[in-house]
């Protein structure tokens, strides 16, 4: 029997990070739930044991059921008939197994039927599910939409909808439209308030993941005559009430088990979430940040699958009388794949821990006033989460695509055939750097933290880590990379040219990413020497990338942008 949790020691390493003690303390509120629920933990050790046991169940379901169904789901996919979606048989089996095991609504409070898990072990479950089948993670992982309901909806709405999600009903976030992809300010689906105070929705949504879900979060234009984000509000649509039909399922390159739908709203009853006009400005931004962390987890899970498929094939495939893993060219590819995987995972969980802490404080603030020290800590971790989320989504999805590419390359001609899983992994991976905001949009979000020094401050804080003598050379290299990065930032910012800064944004963000991931791996290695090989390989790789970007920036003049068709004016 396969278990995708217990066969991957890296997961438990990150689960047992020292920051988890603080996260659990904040999440469990002195373990008060132990008096009300027999399954609630009584102390930190009990909580950690609970996470471990649940992740073991996730790993077993993914290894024995989800992964086994993945190929069949990819071939058959969902169908649409009479305006309704029918999942592939394997997908339905996956959902049934997860529901039976109580794996829906993991992060929701126990009083609403959830497990009250912090974000970190929940994201770990998403990592595991994605390794088994990235398309299924898009269905299972959308339970995270319940977090937005919990954060912004009324108490009545929380009591009405969240227990249904915890019981196994599915969710979707209906944001994009035929003429409004990433530009959500252009959303035109119309929300009309009736005389009795209720709302109805009319219009079309497109590219909606799991679009025939039970409960939808919908971005709609509530203010007549408005044309920007200030006229948009968030609504809950309940499939039980009717009014929405699925016009079609998109014929996609990958993640075929996940139905991506075009929806038609015709006087669909809906409920306003929170305040009018705050749909995009506040609620969708929070929803998207959570989704981006989920895509980072999906990227890491796919990277894990790609690496394992490549490694297994390289050990088995023989050429010229020996396994191809013995050829230096192949061994190097595998080493870099593993280093990118470990670097991606350490960035993912650093980000999830920051999100855990600031969101826990947000939740506590609903119950009582935070102390000045708590407010300061909340602000600190919120800033880090805001900085690390686009970095994690951008870097892990790009590495996911690179690992999927290299997986096929190691398979050679066989990798181009549907006989091997790497062909499906390659197709599934491609979307990760596109949806929930392309890598280019992640750069737009991240460059602010280059300019304000958030990344540099974080790097310098990590540089305080004491290391064993064996790793001092790596730390020296990271310090030199930091100097190159700081000099590049100073050069670009000093030019005082916004277009020049925007042109160099990707390079600056990638430089910060390589250094941060190197330092995080350095910290991992101090706790677990098993990461040392990946540390050395990744820092060598990152050093070359940082040097390449630094050289490009140093030798580039703002006027040279004309060659790229970009105006260099301020």
Keywords:
570 residues, seven-stranded mixed β-sheet, 17 helices, 11 strands, 57% helix
Give a nutshell description of this structure.
The protein is of the alpha+beta class.
What secondary-structure arrangement, pairings included, does this model have?
Layout: H1 9-15, H2 20-28, H3 44-76, E1 79-81, E2 84-86, H4 89-100, H5 119-132, H6 134-140, H7 145-152, H8 155-166, E3 171-174, E4 190-193, E5 199-209, E6 215-221, E7 232-238, E8 244-249, E9 260-273, H9 279-316, E10 318-319, E11 322-323, H10 328-364, H11 372-411, H12 421-429, H13 439-451, H14 454-462, H15 472-494, H16 498-527, H17 532-554
Parallel strand pairs: 3-6
Antiparallel strand pairs: 1-2, 4-5, 5-9, 6-7, 7-9, 8-9, 10-11
Helix pairs in contact: 2-10, 3-4, 3-5, 5-6, 5-9, 5-10, 7-9, 9-10, 9-11, 9-12, 10-11, 10-16, 10-17, 11-12, 11-13, 13-16, 14-16, 15-16, 15-17, 16-17
């Amino acid at each position: 029997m396969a278990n995708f949790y217990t066969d991957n020691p890296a997961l438990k390493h990150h689960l047992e990070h020292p920051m988890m003690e603080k996260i659990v303390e904040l999440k469990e509120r002195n373990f008060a739930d132990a008096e009300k629920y027999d399954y609630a933990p009584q102390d930190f050790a009990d909580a950690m044991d609970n996470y471990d046991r649940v992740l073991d169940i996730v790993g077993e379901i993914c290894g024995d059921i989800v992964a086994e169904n993945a190929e069949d789901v990819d071939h058959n996919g969902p169908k649409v008939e009479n305006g309704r979606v029918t999942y592939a048989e394997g997908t339905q089996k996956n959902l049934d197994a997860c529901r039976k095991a109580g794996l829906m609504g993991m992060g929701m409070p126990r009083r609403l039927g959830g497990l009250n898990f912090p974000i970190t072990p929940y994201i770990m479950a998403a990592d595991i599910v994605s390794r088994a089948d990235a398309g299924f993670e898009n269905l299972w992982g959308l339970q995270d939409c319940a977090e937005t309901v919990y954060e912004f909806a009324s108490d009545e709405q929380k009591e009405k909808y969240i227990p249904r999600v915890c019981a196994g009903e599915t969710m979707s976030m209906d944001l994009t439209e035929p003429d409004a992809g990433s530009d959500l300010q252009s959303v035109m689906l119309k929300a009309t308030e009736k005389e009795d105070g209720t709302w109805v929705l009319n219009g079309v949504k497109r590219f909606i993941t799991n679009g025939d879900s039970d409960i939808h979060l919908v971005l709609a234009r509530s203010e007549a005559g408005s044309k920007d984000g200030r006229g948009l509000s968030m609504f809950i649509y309940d499939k039980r009430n009717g009014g929405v039909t699925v016009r079609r399922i998109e014929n996609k390159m990958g993640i075929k088990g996940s139905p991506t739908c075009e929806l038609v709203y015709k006087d669909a009853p809906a409920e306003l979430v929170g305040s009018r006009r705050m749909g995009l400005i506040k609620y969708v931004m929070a929803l998207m940040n959570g989704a981006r962390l989920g895509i980072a987890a999906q990227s890491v899970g796919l990277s894990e699958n790609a690496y394992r498929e490549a490694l297994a094939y390289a050990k088995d495939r023989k050429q010229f009388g020996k396994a191809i893993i013995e050829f230096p060219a192949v061994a190097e590819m595998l080493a870099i794949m593993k280093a990118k995987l470990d670097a991606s995972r350490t960035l993912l969980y650093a980000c999830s821990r920051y999100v855990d802490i600031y969101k826990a404080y947000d939740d506590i603030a609903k119950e009582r006033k935070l102390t000045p020290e708590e407010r300061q800590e909340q602000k600190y971790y919120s800033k880090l989460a805001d900085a690390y989320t686009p970095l994690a989504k951008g870097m892990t999805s790009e590495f996911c695509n690179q690992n999927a590419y290299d997986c096929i390359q190691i398979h050679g001609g066989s990798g181009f055939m549907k006989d091997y899983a790497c062909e499906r992994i390659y197709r599934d991976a491609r979307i990760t750097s596109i949806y929930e905001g392309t890598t280019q949009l992640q750069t737009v979000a991240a460059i602010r933290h280059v300019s304000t020094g958030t990344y540099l401050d974080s790097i310098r804080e990590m540089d305080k880590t004491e290391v064993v003598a064996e790793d001092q050379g790596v730390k020296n290299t990271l310090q030199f990379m930091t100097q190159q990065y700081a000099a590049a930032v100073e050069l670009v910012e000093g030019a005082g040219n916004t277009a020049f800064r925007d042109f160099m944004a990707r390079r600056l963000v990638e430089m910060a990413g390589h250094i941060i991931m190197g330092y995080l791996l350095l910290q991992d290695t101090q706790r677990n020497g098993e990461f040392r090989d990946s540390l050395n390989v990744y820092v060598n790789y990152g050093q070359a990338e940082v040097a390449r970007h630094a050289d490009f920036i140093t030798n580039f003049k703002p006027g040279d942008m004309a060659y790229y068709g970009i105006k260099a004016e301020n």
